[in-house]
From TrEMBL:
Belongs to the short-chain dehydrogenases/reductases (SDR) family. It holds the Pfam family adh_short_C2. The lineage of its organism: Bacteria, Bacillati, Actinomycetota, Actinomycetes, Kitasatosporales. Gene3D superfamilies: NAD(P)-binding Rossmann-like Domain. It comes from Streptomyces pseudovenezuelae. PROSITE patterns: ADH_SHORT. This is NAD(P)-dependent dehydrogenase (Short-subunit alcohol dehydrogenase family). CDD domains: SDR_c. It comes from the Bacteria. SUPFAM superfamilies: NAD(P)-binding Rossmann-fold domains. Coiled coil: none annotated.
Amino acid sequence: MRIDLAGRTALVTGSTQGIGAAIAAGLARSGARVGVNGRDEQRVGEAVARLATEVPGGSFVPVAADVASEEGARQALEALPQVDILVNNLGIFGSADPLDISDDEWRRYFEVNVLAAVRLIRQYLPGMTERGRGRILNIASDSAIVIPAEMIHYGMSKTALLAVGRGFAKEAAGTGVTVNSVIAGPTHTGGVEDFVYELVDRDLPWDEAQREFMREHRPQSLLQRLIEPEEIAHMVVYLSSDQASATTGGALRVDGGYVDSILP
């Protein structure tokens, strides 16, 4: 299958590293012009330079903006007034005792993981529907379905994100715009390495720490390893393409079989 995104402009939020950077690279390899987003201008510039080396000939646009805020969303719109592919990847996560999570922390998770996506969809969906084509993708998590006891606030926000995707897919019905969620399973990123070491012995080498984490905390994974960011990106690139024109309102899993269910 050859995916050609030439002439399309994409915005990938939270894309200076990890899954977001892998998605940005994947879209650029298929010919899209990609907005690389982060809060810090220097980090965004460094990420753009790194991606340009990784994808020779790729087209990247720096979008330095805190899209978890209303002002940041407006700044993103100024940097990229027209977007054909919106990937809401920005998210925060972390473990916490459920009874110790403050009201402010609950609000912060909802603001960053849910409202940031809602604001950007409101900004870009009207233009997509007017042009009669577009792709909106929300990066969710297995934690939306299998709520971890140590990350209830995170799981809540990702469950809400699934609802956001399904709801806006109905708003876009019949317009040529598709809206989907990608349910990512336990994925190997720098942030996840830190998280793993919060739960297992920090003295263990990474390979052993990863195996212990999967065995003790994610034993239902059929893959029995962490997913690589590029594996999430492959699904996003496909859903961004013309080949995925009949897929909308869905929650598609790249979870390594972690969720023990035929349907989400």
